[in-house]
């Protein structure tokens, strides 16, 4: 993949990659680091990136970078989140709380599929799980989301 | 009830504070120019380097793992001669095929081979295939194996591909026999495991689908379905890790661990290889995605009910 094509692809994917990283890391600076670092890694392997699967490939690199950052955090911090650096509450914080209450195993498929609009096939490839497993996770994620959301509404109600 | 849209989800993680895209553009602009595409020999060289590095790392892990177990026993692996893929147990090396040796012992026992002229040398990697117990002993001897108490093949084998062996804590077994090898160079001691440490009695394998549906509760039955089963015990006797693979089941990899050791599992096309977290960072970047020869599963991300098969403790 040529430089111009690579840059165009990355810029196009960037907002989604950033959202994804933030959903995993819950930290703006870390999310930005993850995406930028992924660009460096992806570029170093750019000759292996195919146009048709580049989006999934790069997304996977971002997820792996997030994992690396999480591992690093575990070594230096007792918890996953660094209190002062987390995002300020968003207007739709109830929904965010509900989404964040899902385990990462369920949250990531949900966000890749419905936030970023990847197909089931692409999402399964990115997460490296069979499509049937993905479908099961999506089903469970949606069910939990629905249940939690209803609870929240009742509480607000 | 409110419908959650794609936009709603996107808004959860979108911060409009400043234009990050511009920042990304700057990052991309700083990326160095790429070198000309490498020629095939270089790629091959890299692959060989990667394999060598992986082998060295695994040997290091094996050595470290041996050191971790305060007992005198370690685990090791074996492969059958017809398979090309080397089998690497969690702490093991490859010696094969031992089926002839192991099949002669009942499931609840294991054997220890003790060179008569034992010294204090430690275990060295043995990679040669052998076709008989006698040849195995000779290979062990030639390799300078002089710490025989560490060589404990558990008394079970599997019908295809890879044989796995677990290490057993000291004092949890009872010697039931002692014989010499034909060449008189080794003493083979058969031990019977303390009941609580017998794998089939403590754990059963539950297959949700695939070649069988239901609990596999005996090693004998497991032999029909499982290609790899690696178990490691620290000195306290609790199961530290288990790993298996069932042929033909895409999702059939699972390991269970006590949290003190985070296992990563890498599955080449035919044979699982187990490494610990120390190695994970070197092969989990995205550049590995399209390497058809490895599939990575980060076990801690798997939820038990989604993993096939599931280990179920049977009391």
Describe this entry's structure for a reader.
The complex is a heterodimer of chains A (157) and B (315). With 157 residues, chain A is mainly alpha-helical. Chain A has two domains: 1-88, RNA polymerase sigma factor, region 2, helix turn helix motif (Rna Polymerase Sigma Factor, Chain: A), CATH 1.10.1740.10; 90-157, Winged helix-like DNA-binding domain superfamily/Winged helix DNA-binding domain (Arc Repressor Mutant, subunit A), CATH 1.10.10.10. Chain A contains seven helices and no strands. Chain A has helices at 3-25, 28-44, 54-76, 93-100, 104-115, 120-127, 131-156. The N and C termini of chain A lie far apart (53 Å). Mean pLDDT of chain A is 76; it is low at 75-91. With 315 residues, chain B is α+β, with helices and mostly antiparallel strands. Chain B has one domain (41-313). Helices cover 25% and strands 22% of the residues of chain B. Chain B contains eight helices and 14 strands. Chain B has helices at 6-12, 20-30, 40-68, 99-102, 133-142, 199-202, 219-225, 277-283, and strands at residues 77-79, 109-115, 162-164, 173-180, 186-193, 203-207, 214-216, 228-232, 241-245, 253-257, 263-267, 273-276, 295-298, 310-313. In chain B, the strands form five sheets. In chain B, strands 2-5-4 form a three-stranded antiparallel sheet, with no helix packed on it. In chain B, strands 7-6-14 form a three-stranded antiparallel sheet. A three-stranded antiparallel sheet of chain B has the order 8-9-10, with no helix packed on it. Chain B is globular and about 75 Å long. Chains A and B meet through helix 1, helix 2, helix 3, helix 4 and helix 5 of A and helix 1, helix 2 and strand 13 of B.
Give me some keywords for this one.
heterodimer; A: 157 residues; mainly alpha; Rna Polymerase Sigma Factor, Chain: A; Arc Repressor Mutant, subunit A; 7 helices; 75% helix; globular; B: 315 residues; alpha+beta; three-stranded antiparallel beta sheet; 14 strands; disordered C terminus
């Amino acid at each position: 993949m040529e430089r111009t094509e690579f840059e165009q692809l990355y810029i196009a994917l960037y907002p989604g990659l950033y959202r994804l990283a933030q959903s995993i890391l819950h930290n703006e600076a870390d999310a930005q680091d993850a995406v930028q670092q992924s660009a460096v890694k992806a570029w170093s392997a750019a000759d292996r990136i195919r146009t048709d699967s580049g989006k999934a490939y790069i997304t996977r690199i971002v997820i792996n970078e997030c994992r690396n950052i999480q591992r690093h955090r575990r070594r230096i911090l007792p918890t996953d989140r660094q209190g002062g650096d987390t995002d300020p509450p968003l207007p739709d914080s109830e929904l965010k709380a509900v989404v964040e209450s899902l385990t990462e195993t369920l949250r990531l498929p949900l966000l890749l599929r419905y936030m970023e609009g990847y197909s089931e096939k692409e999402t399964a490839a990115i997460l490296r799980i069979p499509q049937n497993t993905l479908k099961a996770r999506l089903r469970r994620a949606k069910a939990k989301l629905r249940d939690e959301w209803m609870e929240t509404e009742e509480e607000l109600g | 009830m409110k419908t959650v849209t794609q936009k709603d989800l996107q808004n959860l993680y979108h911060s409009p504070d400043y234009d990050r895209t511009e920042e990304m553009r700057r990052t991309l602009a700083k990326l160095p120019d790429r070198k000309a595409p490498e020629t095939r020999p270089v790629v091959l060289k890299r692959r060989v380097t990667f394999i060598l590095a992986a082998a060295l790392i695994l040997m290091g892990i094996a050595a470290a793992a041996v050191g971790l177990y305060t007992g005198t026993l370690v685990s090791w692996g074996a492969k059958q001669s017809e398979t090309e893929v080397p089998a690497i147990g969690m702490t093991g090396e490859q010696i094969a095929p031992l089926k002839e040796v192991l099949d002669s012992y009942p499931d609840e026992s294991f054997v220890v081979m003790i060179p008569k002229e034992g010294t204090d040398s430690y275990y060295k990697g043995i990679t040669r295939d052998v076709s008989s117990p006698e040849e195995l002993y000779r290979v062990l001897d030639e390799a300078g194996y002089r710490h025989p108490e560490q060589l404990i093949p558990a008394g079970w084998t599997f019908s295809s591909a890879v044989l796995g062996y677990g290490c057993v804590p000291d004092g949890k077994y009872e010697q039931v026999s002692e014989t010499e090898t034909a060449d008189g160079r080794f003493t083979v001691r058969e031990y019977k495991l303390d009941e609580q440490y017998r794998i089939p009695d403590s754990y059963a394998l539950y297959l949700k689908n695939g070649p069988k549906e239901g609990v596999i509760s005996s090693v004998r039955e497991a032999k029909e379905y499982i290609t790899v089963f690696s178990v490691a015990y620290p000195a306290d006797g609790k199961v530290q890790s288990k790993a298996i693979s069932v042929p033909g089941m895409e999702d059939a990899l699972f390991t269970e661990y006590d949290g003190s050791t985070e296992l990563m599992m890498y599955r080449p096309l035919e044979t699982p290889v187990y490494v610990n977290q120390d190695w994970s960072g070197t092969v989990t970047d995205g550049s590995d995605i399209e390497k058809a020869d490895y599939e990575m599963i980060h076990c801690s991300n798997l939820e038990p009910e989604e993993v096939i098969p599931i280990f179920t403790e049977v009391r």
